[in-house]
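From the shared-data thread, chain only:
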Amino acid sequence: MSRGRPFSFYEFFAGGGMARAGLGDAWRCLFANDFDAGKARAYRANWGDADLVEGDVWAIEPDALPGRADLAWASSPCQDLSLAGARAGLVGGRSSAFWGFWRLMQALNDEGRGPRVIVLENVAGLLSSNGGADFTAVCQAFAEAGYGFGAVEVDASAFLPHSRPRVFVIATREAAAGAPGPGAFHGRAVLAAHDRLPKALADRWRWWDLPRPASPNARLPDLLEPDGAVRWRSQAQTEALVGQLSPLHRRRLEVAIAKGERVVAAVYRRIRTEQGAKVQRAELRLDGLAGCLRTPAGGSSRQLLLIADGGLVRSRHLTAREGARLMGLPETYRLPSSETAALHLLGDGVAAPVVRFLAERLVEPLLAAPAPVIVAAE
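Structure, as tokens:
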């Protein structure tokens, strides 16, 4: 979509700038922020430091944000909302950073320069944390600032061989009414969250109409490094990993190996309760997808690969560069030199092709309409 000037955006909780990577060259960054020093270094390595303000979002003053952005993108911390965390909700220590971001949006709104579109990206737990009260509070904030809003749940597996479901709440000042009802990206969790809203907020809801994308061509094996270029775990470690498979997952592996083809399985180790006792189990994915990338300190262990080929069964960890490919980042994207730091960066990121999809199919068409006139508050 072409117009006389690039679209402009603010990127909050920017991490390594993966939303920026997804938005692409048609967009101009006016301001970016992240609290984490390691992520800020990665952002500078890829995008320079002209737009980045490193530090707590609560310490930022409105005059640090230049101009009026078309879009404010906020991938606020999810640890307190994630199913892998304590689910303290938006009052939790990290996820409360959303309200630090919102304080700035309110100030810009009072000055007559509130962004025309706001996108809040988070885990699906946002829809149900605190019995839905957190999501209702977010919607109430949008409504009080004059925005209509709606939510979609998009899994990165629609674009990449990587299962990564995320919720995107899109709020806009534009007059677009959306579709008359739910569509392809309004799953049960979104429907339930909508149904919990009081009528005054439900009246501002938009059913964002997004087409189903074409099925991705790549599968997990297509994105992996050559066998000779990676470090394999010992045979004893591999045998121990196979020994942690439940009978069901072991049978799945045996059936796959019996076909005589190369088998690539993504593996996570989890604690399961069996007959009243806690047992560590290894669980396989044999559907050509990686499991959701997590930070190394997240709710489950670092992702492993179990590969069987020619009668040999081996295991290794997923590399950071492979993780970057699973997030849709180009080979030129500069990762931290530490594998742990790189995986932490990726585990907290947003899949770039999902951002591009939302921008192309929803945000840019909304912004192509004439900008509404916003009057600063008295």
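Confidence is low (pLDDT under 50) at residues 373-378.
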